[in-house]
Amino acid sequence: MEETKLNLSGCSTVGEARELISSEFPEIALDLAKCMLAVDMTFRQDDELLDAPREVAVIPPVSGG
Are 42 and 59 in contact (CB under 8 A)? Predict the structure, then answer.
């Protein structure tokens, strides 16, 4: 799995981080709307504050059986 580093210093919320990821990687922008974001290994909602994260992970929808 490839790790990509983005400068999130201009993002104050998780939603703003999602928008930055969408603008940097437009090829995944539509799919990103269906994904959860985890900040430092904790799922977060778009309206939550983004306080100096060390890691933001994009988690695609999954299903189990």
Answer: no
11-61 pLDDT tens trace: 999 999 999 999 999 999 999 999 999 999 999 999 999 988 899 999 998
CA–CA distance, 26 with 19 (Å, rounded to integer): 10
CA 28/CA 52 separation, integer angstroms:
24
- Measuring CA to CA, how many Å separate 61 from each of 25, 41, 44, 64? 18, 16, 15, 10
Q: How far is CA 43 from the centre of its chain?
A: 10
pTM of the model: 0.86
